[in-house]
Amino acid sequence: MEKEYVMEIARTIREQLVSLTPMPVIMSWGIEGFAATVYKDMPALQIEVNGRLHTGYVIVALNGADYYEVYLQKGAAVECVNDEVCFDELGDVIDRAIESGTDQAEYDRFCEQQRALLLSGQHA
User: Fold this and answer.
1) 106 by DSSP, 3-state: which?
2) DSSP letters spanning 3-43
3) Residue 124 banded pLDDT, cuts 50, 70, 90
4) 109 in helix, strand or coil?
5) What is the pTM of this model?
6) Which of 8, 57, 78, 107 yields a CA-CA distance of 20 to 30 A from 69?
7) Can you say how many angstroms the Cα of residue 18 is from the centroid of all Cα atoms in its chain?
8) How far apart are CA 40 and CA 92, in angstroms?
9) Alpha-carbon distance 14 to 31, whole Å?
10) Backbone φ, ψ for residue 8 (5° rounding)
11) Enclosing H/E stretch for 90
12) In 3D, which of 41, 100, 40, 26 has the Cα closest to residue 73?
């Protein structure tokens, strides 16, 4: 696979993710860096994250059907989160997997507790 093609796809994924996902959501992922890569013979973007539910890597790969596949990697373990993600769903899929989870009320309580800790000057 040509390096320029991989770089172009990774750049597109990053632009879509950043432009369509609210900035506070992206900030909550604790992103350490982005890297263009090839995963399972697909051009991909690898994101190093430090989320509440997942710390490690998120791999977003473009498959032959023009959908994204989202994987979580921690060490040697890799889990496919979703193999049919449209560009406008990418931020939500990643956020549920690494930060907010599927229980919105539980996540809202967590965020409120963290906010209270910050305002009180205490550390988590």
Assistant:
1) helix
2) HHHHHHHHHHHHHHHHHHS-HHHHHHT---EEEEEEETTEE
3) low
4) helix
5) 0.90
6) 107
7) 11
8) 23
9) 12
10) -65, -45
11) helix 90-95
12) 40
Q: How far is CA 37 from CA 32, 51, 117, in A?
A: 16, 21, 38
Domain regions of the chain by residue span: 3-120
Q: What is the H or E stretch that residue 46 is in?
A: strand 42-50
| 117: DSSP letter | H
Q: Both tokens of residue 16?
A: 């879509």
Q: CA 57, 66, 103, 112 torsion: positive or negative?
A: positive
Q: Model confidence over 35-72: pLDDT tens digits?
A: 999 999 999 999 999 999 999 999 999 999 999 999 99
> Cβ neighbours of residue 98 under 8 Å, at least 6 residues apart?
29, 49, 51, 52, 53, 54, 58, 72
Task: Say which range, 32-36, 56-60, 96-100, 116-120, has the weakest mean pLDDT.
Answer: 116-120
What gap in Å lies between CA 74 and CA 25, rounded to an integer? 21
